[in-house]
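Handout, section 4.2: multi-component inputs.
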Amino acid sequence: MKIVCNRTDLVSGVSIVSKAVSNKTTLPILECILIEASAGTITLTANDMELGIETNIEGNILEQGKIALDAKLFFEIVRKLPDNDVTIETDSDYKATITCEKACFHIVGQEGSEFPYLPEIEKEKSITLSQFTLKEVIRQTIFSISDNENNKLMTGELFEVEDNKLNVVSLDGHRISIRNIELKESFDSFKVVVPGKTLQEITKIISGDAEKDVIIYVTNKHILFEFDQTRVVSRLLEGEYYKISQMLSSDYETKITINKKEFLDCIDRASLLIRESDKKPIVINITDNSLELNISSFFGSMEENILIQKEGRDILIGFNPKFLMDVLRVIDDEEINIYLVNPKAPCFIKDSSESYIYLILPVNFNH
Amino acid sequence: MKIVCNRTDLVSGVSIVSKAVSNKTTLPILECILIEASAGTITLTANDMELGIETNIEGNILEQGKIALDAKLFFEIVRKLPDNDVTIETDSDYKATITCEKACFHIVGQEGSEFPYLPEIEKEKSITLSQFTLKEVIRQTIFSISDNENNKLMTGELFEVEDNKLNVVSLDGHRISIRNIELKESFDSFKVVVPGKTLQEITKIISGDAEKDVIIYVTNKHILFEFDQTRVVSRLLEGEYYKISQMLSSDYETKITINKKEFLDCIDRASLLIRESDKKPIVINITDNSLELNISSFFGSMEENILIQKEGRDILIGFNPKFLMDVLRVIDDEEINIYLVNPKAPCFIKDSSESYIYLILPVNFNH
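Output:
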């Protein structure tokens, strides 16, 4: 194989596929990036057997072929090369020579044909949405997946399509995050659970450009994201996702409207007095036009008042401050509505059109 | 005590003195910041018994007094307060109430009079230089102190003054860094060894402004840096510093002039193929108008040529790449001169006026 490509293109391509390089594996080839030059296309591929990414880069192919190179070393080398044309040439012993201006590296690779190809995905069911929307949806839900591998399904997110609606859900047993998106057209229905890791890596790669699309294809076992010059394939999580409809209710006893930033800053200050391990709740006392927040711990105590609009009954309720902050940080609205029933029942933070719904369970507290 | 001051002033003051808060101590009071309001001045002090910092901040004193507050918690609280006036009030049980807008914190402090005051420094011997110069001098020498506590003097830097010359030296047994500064006027001679940690903290605090001065006072035991509203007092390291004059020589067999950035980038690339633990040298082959760098390791090999100007003999010599990079990173000149004698003798990197001199010992290598 002999190819010439621009260092900037190479760096951005390697940076994209690197997200799927395995870092704990017994198969050394999975620590590599496959470079393949054939039929006018240079393709970079990485695959940790759960998640696979391939991307095409610009360049001249002087001799077709393929080689698998250690991902970390190869990435470091191309990043540190001068910003100019890079030539990659391999010999029959899988030795690669990487030349750029007067710098010349020799590293030993592995046979390209040993590299596991990405699974072929049947392109039957798909949806199209903008990179911006996908990135937002992930950001606004990913924080409430669980990292407990015993509840495998909780480590992923539900992507459910019906007609022109996309419904994305994550939950961890203490809270539920829901985003409802209206798609530009109707698509065939599907319901899949995508691993959280896949979504975290996808958001790092997609640009967040509202003008650029992502096409998402699903099969029984896999999901494929196609955008720009890149394809990301991931296994799906298997099993029936939690039925959340019976947990959602629009009944409430108290509804408040509060300035999001004021509320977030106030909880942020209060949580200074708590160490994660304490599990100390913050206590919120809602009366007419006033929300009073109280916290008392080994380190000291704090109280603060915020002006609110209130409908319905007064209520005194405790929360894990982190759960409230996680939600407040991802909502873009300046004013938000919070719906409460009683100190044992979940509270809801949602907008009037229910484009987002966040459910948070309260915490017991001592008066 | 009751004081009112602006949150921004408070944050910047606490941030400055926090650099002297002890984080491993058996004396809990050393984990505190002393706030003292008396005679029209609000002073913040921290002191880990090696290094002490005090700074004055603006504010209104409604009631004189003092209190010691846990530095970490107090800093976190003031950082997260709204940007407005902050009132700090203490009661007879050393409980402090910190109020800002509607937020109100209560934390328990300690008796201010138990806090160890900074030593009084006799202001007999001093020099004055700009904050910019002091910051530069430290940046350009601090990397070659030793972190080995067995050679206590090597963990500090020599500050030697004679007439209008300031000479700053650091060394770690493999290399020496020297900066020679011409002061604006002549001062009484002195020769002290300042702990590296003190210098590292000082550079974080001083602004680097060429228009602002630092006055440095020395006694037998202490050094005091005075600038802006701040005083930093540190113990000195005791003992006779290494005599370096006999290690410096202006004889050479080979002199080269090389582009600093090209040389640095080239070594940076080459060092990709080395892990710190390897202790692999880079090998430099200097011939007429050409410097060829070679490295070969378990990971691969690399070679690169750089155009140079050369006087004198050809030479083949090995170096620890980190030592060369540390020096090249802090020199501002675009073109640098390197002086070599033979593959066993130290090389010198210095400018013609010797405002900087860097000595680096070479490393043995196998052909």
